[in-house]
Q: What sequence folds into this?
């Protein structure tokens, strides 16, 4: 059995067919180190440590832990309509981008992880056109806080989270850390699950672990044209998260649009709320998770 050593990927026992395009000249061509599985789906955990364009050719799943980890710069992962999932619900990360620049993850489905996409200490990352689905689990199953999050950015800058559909998670998009700045959160649909009590927040701005909540947090982000529905509050902003712009979002929540109204300029804070459409909806339980 071949391994993806030449393009820096370590595969588990069941290999999956992947296309690696490692140069502009090879765009659209399959690398010679392609492994096919006779299974419709493959169980694997992989790390991408070499720049290139990677296209998924099967659904993949892990028993637990992380599915895909990216540590290299200039990586594009095209899920090509396939699904990345876990057999152990609300654990691990579907895609984990750590300390990288110029990474894109696009065009597929990710479901069931504690953090379906996590970007940490990275720059110029794009997360686009994903369908991210949770299991409508209650919060606190992994300790305090959410059991399932759609997308997490931690100390990450100049990145874009765009045109994703995120549903049935406790928290839709979580931006954390004093070094998170200049990000755009745009055109996402973020909808809570069937049980209202499990739907905490659509978008949350907070310090990273170990930072001072009063003085540290993300700053200078633009959050616009998102549709957020069926959460207790649509948006939460910590005291140390400053000078972010929330513009033109459609906010339909159970308890209110902004949990911390005093974080906005209208309440004496520094964050701008401009032309958001806000409504409060009835608290209802849905039949389907």
A:
């Amino acid at each position: 059995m071949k391994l993806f050593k030449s393009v820096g990927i370590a595969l588990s026992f069941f290999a999956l067919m992947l296309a690696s395009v490692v140069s502009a000249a090879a765009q659209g061509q399959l690398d010679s180190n392609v492994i096919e599985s006779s299974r419709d789906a493959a169980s694997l955990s992989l790390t991408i440590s070499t720049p290139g364009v990677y296209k998924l050719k099967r659904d993949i799943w892990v028993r637990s832990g992380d599915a895909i980890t990216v540590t290299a710069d200039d990586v594009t992962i095209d899920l090509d309509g396939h699904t990345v999932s876990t057999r152990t619900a609300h654990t691990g990360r579907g895609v984990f981008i750590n300390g990288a620049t110029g990474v894109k993850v696009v065009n597929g489905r990710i479901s069931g992880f504690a953090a379906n996409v996590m970007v940490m200490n990275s720059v110029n990352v794009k997360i686009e056109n994903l369908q991210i689905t949770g299991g409508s689990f209650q919060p606190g199953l992994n300790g305090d806080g959410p059991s399932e999050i759609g997308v997490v950015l931690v100390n990450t800058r100049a990145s874009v989270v765009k045109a994703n559909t995120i549903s049935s998670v406790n928290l839709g998009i979580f931006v954390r850390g004093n070094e998170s700045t200049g990000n755009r959160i745009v055109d996402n649909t973020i909808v809570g699950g069937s049980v209202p009590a499990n739907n905490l927040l659509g978008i949350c701005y907070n310090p990273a672990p170990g930072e001072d909540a009063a003085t540290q947090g993300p700053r200078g982000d633009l959050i616009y044209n998102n549709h957020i529905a069926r959460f207790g509050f649509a948006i939460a902003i910590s005291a140390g998260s400053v000078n972010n712009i929330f513009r033109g979002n459609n906010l339909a929540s159970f308890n209110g649009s902004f949990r911390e109204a005093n974080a906005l300029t209208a309440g004496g804070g520094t964050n701008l709320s401009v032309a958001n459409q806000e409504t409060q909806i009835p608290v209802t339980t849905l039949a389907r998770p």
